[in-house]
What we know:
The structure holds two protein chains of two kinds. Chain A contains eight helices and 15 strands.
Amino acid sequence: MSSKYSTQELMIIASAREIKDGEVVFVGMRLPITAFGVARLTHAPNAVGLFEVGIARYEPAKDMLYTMSDPPNQQNAAWCTGTMQVMGLLQGGQVDAGFIGGAEIDRFGNINTSYIGGHKQMKTKLPGSGGAADIAAMSKRLLAIMNHEPHRLVRRVGYVTSPGGLDGGNARRKAGLRWGGTGAVITDRAILKPYGEDGELHLFSIHPGHTALEVKNHTGWELKDHPDQMQTPEPTRIEMDALHAIDRDGFWRG
Amino acid sequence: MQSKLVSLKEAVAGFIKDGDRLVIGASLEAAIPFAATFELIRQNKRQLDLIAPISDASADMLIGAGCAGSITGAWVGNVSGGLGHNYRRAMEQGLPHPLKVNDFSNFSLAMALMAGAYGMPFVPVRSLLGSDITQSNPDHKILQNPLSEAPDPVVLVKPLVPDVAIFSVPRSDVFGNAHFWGSLGVVQEAALAAKSVILLADEIVEPAVIASDPNRVIFPGFKVKAVAHEPASQYPSPMTGCWKRDNAFFNDYHQRSRDREGYLAWLEEWVLSLPDHASLRAKLGTRLDDLRIKGTALAAPANFASE
């Protein structure tokens, strides 16, 4: 066990663990790129990464990535193509897991990266969807990574950029989405997973050094306990080494 | 055939008008023709509609300079930095002036350009169901799939035809036949949909070089109206086989554009005080040399012989 790791490092490693070996994973911008690389170097050596710029990769890139378009992600890629082709596979139901970041998420896993306050009474303009709306709608399981603050984990987002469970229950199917939904929300304090008939996010795993009470106090709805609640294992030496190899300059774990 | 070689200044002055619907790079983070972004700012173009899934910080820079009237895209910000401060100021405070946004996702924008390219009346997608993008952009219409008996809502996306698409490419001949490789984003769809295409070529090569590998030509030269020879036109973004990304430049922009005064000082230093892209290259000096990709990882040749 490593005794020294930052909160950000634990969040990235906990996210990497949600990727299963052999899965085809659609990897979103920023932190998911690093988390996918860690998964590939540790427990998921046969996971395949798809990137919206039009790249499929087996081996993680040999050098530091600030964006998924950087030259190390191009060299020895399994496939260089267009956005249409990789996102077409997503629409075709050929992607096991999608992995995105977020700014605001609600108790049903709906994510807002567009307009805080909604598009009619916007308080803050965020960058928008990018590929996130597509990844959330069309991958078989959605993983989201974000910081855990009460203003970020809210009862109901003002604007759904990327659909999770919508209003809960079978709302997602009723909207016409044929599969998918939230698998896990990985934060810097905990992991939340949907539970129960309506699929509300519950407190599934508490990161070392944090308490259930503290996590709940930092959540904007009355966060309930998942029946299988556990403590997140500390990062292993192997995971930490993988993360440091992927994020050589420490840019994403700073 | 006649040479289409012009200067970047002439290309922007001659082929781009105020109010045009413009694609400035379409591979999301790589090969964004920032040299054209900077020249549009120098020539004070106005009311541009910026079409792109993501074009790293290019749109944010144009918004701050007052060149953009609207955004037709999926994401505006600074990919390694995060938020786009100029985008926020325009949307939240109307500075330097208000901005209209036509919301898309990357996939729906790719499909809209494909529909524009191929003359399709609309294109159905299964994305955006459940997303409020269909609320904030009423051009996206949800309707029942007429070919299905069972309930099957789909989203119809309206075709998109840009006036001009500008691309940085590693090499082109003087007639606009170009090679492009690595991840393609929506470059092909944008080039085929656009009424005209402008190329900024890192290198001008003999036509035989391009003709030797027609699979690496991703849109035909007849779409191209102008070719400017402009090394590192994609700076500070990366371009496969040519240039690495200048991450520090994006971070510096992110920090300095936090407030309007900081952005204006940045703009003066990096754009307005420089007459052209050659001056930017000269200002960067060894910093640019360090970003040049010097190694080789060559593709195996492909045989196109006919007998």
